[in-house]
């Protein structure tokens, strides 16, 4: 049995015969239940008539309306149940697209083969609560003792920043304040744990232009950072979060400072710029070393707010309430 290391751990490879259309482009898939990488082998055998009918029905119904299939489709209940029940083998998770945060949060980008679309799979124990009012919630299914929540894949602030950098463009001031207002509103209303990870990948945009935030809470005894997971990702955690030194809400002020920096510089504030030693990023944060200033044409007031947020001592930072008030003042003009 061959073992191939993923981010932060090792996972065995097993083989599986599988031939949905899109899997022909993918040679392997990650199984979040077994933590195994499965080799996908094509077969020349055509799919059954039942499988083809199921695919056609699901493409018409869409995942968003999947639960309606049981009651509204003109099919016998037994057939409707077979058509509308999703399974893990309806999805392919490309292991090369995963990072430490995916394994930490048990949230994986996937391709739904039957409707030929990209989604997000959230994996959790059977019986856990599900927020069906989530802006990108589609449906859910269970497999054994595990339940999978399917979300529509949304564009993140990280995606927008990368596109902006590729196009050699910059953000407008009103966009920056709109993002800051949405982040602060989430922190103030949802009251997430101060050890939660707030990053540019947690800020999502809906098709209608709305913004919603997903802060990945981290258990107090789960001392895992991007560096621990072996990722070369940026670090948005405040010094007191890294050291577990009684962080409070002002830890989010630090993360907001990192996000402002990235919106201005189009590069993360704290990451391994040389590509040799990701642990040096943590040391830079702990020693109060600041990143290089963003471009000189950045907005002075926002830039000053950013540096205030990146104060090493929490007491020296503005509160989330203060940042929210500033954003509200600008957005209400």
What does this structure look like?
The chain is 33% helix and 19% strand. The chain contains 11 helices and 12 strands. The strands form 3 sheets. A 5-stranded antiparallel β-sheet has the order 5-6-7-9-8.
What labels would you give this structure?
333 residues, alpha+beta, 4-stranded mixed beta sheet, disordered N terminus
User: In what range is the share of β-strand residues?
Assistant: 15-25%
Q: Average pLDDT, to the nearest integer?
A: 83
Please count the helical segments: 11
* Helix vs. strand class: alpha+beta
Tally the beta strands.
12
Oligomer: single chain
Distance between the termini: 63 Å
Q: What is the overall silhouette?
A: elongated
Strand order of the largest sheet: 5-6-7-9-8
Classify the helix fraction into a percent range.
Answer: 25-40%
User: Which residue ranges are poorly predicted, with pLDDT under 50 across at least 5 consecutive positions?
Assistant: 1-24, 219-231
Largest sheet: 5 strands, antiparallel
Helix-strand string: EEEEHHHEHEEEEEHHEEHHHHH
Radius of gyration based on Cα positions? 22 Å
Sequence-ordered SSE layout with sheet pairings:
Elements: E1 3-6, E2 9-17, E3 28-31, E4 36-41, H1 49-61, H2 69-72, H3 77-84, E5 91-92, H4 100-105, E6 107-112, E7 117-125, E8 137-143, E9 146-152, E10 155-156, H5 157-166, H6 173-190, E11 203-205, E12 211-213, H7 239-242, H8 250-265, H9 279-286, H10 300-309, H11 320-331
Parallel strand pairs: 2-4
Antiparallel strand pairs: 1-2, 3-4, 5-6, 6-7, 7-9, 8-9, 10-11, 11-12
């Amino acid at each position: 049995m061959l073992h191939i290391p993923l981010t932060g751990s090792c996972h065995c490879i097993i083989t599986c015969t599988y031939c949905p259309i899109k899997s022909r482009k993918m040679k392997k898939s990650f199984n979040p239940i077994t933590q195994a990488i499965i080799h996908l082998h094509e077969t020349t055998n055509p799919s059954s008539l039942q499988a083809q009918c199921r695919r056609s029905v699901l493409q018409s119904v869409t995942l968003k309306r999947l639960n309606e299939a049981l009651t509204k489709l003109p099919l016998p209940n037994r057939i409707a149940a077979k058509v509308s029940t999703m399974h893990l083998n309806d999805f392919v998770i490309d292991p090369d697209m995963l990072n430490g945060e995916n394994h930490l949060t048990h949230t994986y980008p996937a391709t739904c083969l039957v409707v030929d679309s990209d989604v997000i799979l959230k994996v959790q124990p059977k019986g856990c609560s599900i927020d069906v009012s989530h802006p990108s919630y589609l449906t859910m299914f269970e497999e054994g003792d595990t339940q999978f929540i399917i979300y529509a894949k949304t564009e993140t602030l990280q995606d927008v920043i990368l596109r902006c950098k590729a196009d050699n463009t910059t953000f407008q001031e009103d966009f920056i304040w709109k993002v800051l207002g949405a982040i602060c509103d989430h922190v103030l209303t949802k009251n997430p744990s101060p050890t939660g990870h707030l990053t540019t990948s947690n800020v999502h945009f809906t098709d209608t232009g709305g913004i919603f935030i997903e802060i990945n809470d981290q258990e107090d005894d789960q001392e895992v950072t991007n560096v621990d997971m072996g990722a070369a990702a940026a670090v948005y955690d405040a010094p007191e979060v890294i050291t577990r030194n009684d962080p409070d809400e002002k830890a989010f002020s630090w993360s907001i400072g990192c996000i402002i920096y990235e919106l201005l510089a189009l590069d993360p504030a704290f990451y391994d710029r040389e590509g040799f030693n990701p642990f040096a990023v943590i040391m830079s944060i702990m020693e109060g070393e600041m990143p290089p200033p963003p471009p000189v044409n950045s907005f002075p007031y926002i830039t000053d707010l950013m540096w205030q947020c990146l104060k090493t001592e929490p007491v020296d930072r503005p509160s989330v309430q203060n940042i929210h008030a500033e954003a509200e003042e600008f957005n209400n003009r």
